Amino acid sequence: MPTVTISREYGSAGTAVAREAAGLLGYHFVDKAAIGRILAGYGLIDFERTYDTETGIWSTFDTRVRTIVAMLERITFAVARHGHSVILGRGSYAVLKGAPGVLNVRIRAPFDWRVSRSMAEDGVSDRAKAEAEVREGDKIRASFVTTIYGLRWDSIEGFDLVVDTSRIAPSRAAGWIVEAVRAFRAVDPLSVPGADSRLALADPTLDEAVASELNCTGKHRTG
Questions:
Q1: What is the rounded distance in angstroms from the CA atom of residue 209 to the CA atom of residue 63?
Q2: How is 40-97 classified by DSSP, letter by letter?
Q3: What is each CA distance from 191 to 1, 11, 178, 195, in whole angstroms?
Q4: C-beta separation of 168 from 179 below 8 A
Q5: Beta-ladder partners of 107
Q6: pLDDT one-digit tens code per residue, 43-74
């Protein structure tokens, strides 16, 4: 079964969908906390703060940014090599775009719905404040994938499944992902000619770090 990446708009319940889908599938759930711990093992202890708050930093593409991006990509490929994982955000769909054995999912919803949901979930009564928070959340995500990978944040190109959680309940959305995974045509990414070498070639130290973080010594590659 494929590795799943889940990209989500801020306030769209994408995290809940990803977590539930991982649980239903019996997959590892790989979020920013898991990725941050792996990066910290390589001395990059401020990735989470950088990604979540410094929306302008990616345009500089200096040595620090190149290091962060390179390590993030290596970790994403290592997780995909390990298999049986749902990777939440962090540009994983852009890193693994076109890779065999990967199902890319986008969770979205209209802006007003996301604002209302954020207000209810966070107990915020000031709608203007909630609107600003949702815009900033989207801006952070867009800044990374647009600057680093040249992809339009609002485009659905490259996704295998797109779900609007204002119309489809998050629990149903998770179920749809499970159905899509089970219907996915099995293919071993290492068997496909021209597969990205970062996916095909082992990175023993990093692969071991990923396995340790996931508390799983096995590999579950598709096929």
A1: 24
A2: HTTT-TTHHHHHHH-TTGGGT--HHHHHHHHHHHHHHHHHHHH-SEEEESTTHHHHTT
A3: 15, 38, 24, 8
A4: no
A5: 8, 163
A6: 766 666 666 655 555 555 667 777 888 888 89
Global model pTM greater than 0.85: no
CA distance 35 to 93: 15
3-state secondary structure of 98: coil
| C-alpha radius of gyration, the chain, whole number | 17
Q: Render pLDDT for 174-222 as a digit per residue (tens, 0 to 9).
A: 999 999 999 886 555 555 444 455 565 667 888 888 999 999 876 675 4
- Helices 63-82 and 32-40 cross at an angle (nearest 10°) of 110
Domains (range + CATH), the chain: 3-214 (3.40.50.300)
Give the distance from CA 213 to its chain's centroid.
17
